[in-house]
Amino acid sequence: MTRYSIFKDVRPYKFLAWPLVPVVIPIVNTSLWLARKSLPVSSGVTLKKVLLSTTDDTSVTLYIYSPVDQPASACLLYFYGSAYFMTQSPHHHKWAMTYAKETTSIVVLVDYRQAPRYPFPAPFNDCFQAADWVFNHSRNLGIDPRKIAVGGDSSGGALAAGVTLLRRDRHLPNFCFQFLLYPVMHARTQTPSMRAFDKTPFWNNALYKMMWSLYVQKPIDPVQPYAAPLEARHFRNLPPAYIEVCEYDPLRDEGLLYAKELMAAKTEADVAVVPKALHGYDIPYWTKRSQAFEARRIAALKTVFEDQQSTRYKQ
Asked: Which of 118, 206, 242, 310 has the most C-beta neighbours closer than 10 Å?
């Protein structure tokens, strides 16, 4: 931790920077499941669970958070960050409840399947089907289909951007907004930030390579843009985005490159750089830094959801 001027709020959690190897993944996931099970639903929101059948005869759970006693016409479809092999963390549900309450929107958190048991494209297909479900059930959910946003943190950001690309390529109704938090965007490890932050706690170059080896187990040539969005042929006709990156994150430059591609395609990209922050800095969601950027995130979502002129981009 001493190599970087990490803000003080995160320093107490340096004990979490232990080596992560495939053999300990089941232990990590069991611990996360137990912690999540004890998390209460926040006041001001309700939780409903829906089982979504997949194309290969299994099912995934959609956690639907709605504000209490407030009609919600907007929706955030959210894919949590997992490095593709970890289950949901309590902080993902805490943030989902916060977004629902503070933006008066419905938040659908998708419990997609994880690698290595389910490598690409299974997790991606789960997320794509969840998007179809939200659009097809918008009337039942009471939401305006013009105000459905998609979001995700870390690997969930890649899933969100990848689903958006596929919906564009198939000429399907698409999202009004991309809400991407320190996203994975590339399968390569060649950016300056990836080289500079090769030994950072929580996330680094070695973990990045392990993630891709577990997620994409069969070589893809060329690399699928739906797995690695920066491989897309072009970035035209995509929704505007809020892209948050962390100063000491190996993924920092991937998020910045995606923002650059969107802006080059004449799409608005609102970029927020969190100073002195590591990847996953908001896992302790109660810290001052997390709270400061909570306000930034809420403002970005509310601006989109409250804009009565907000419509889907032109196909």
From this structure: 242
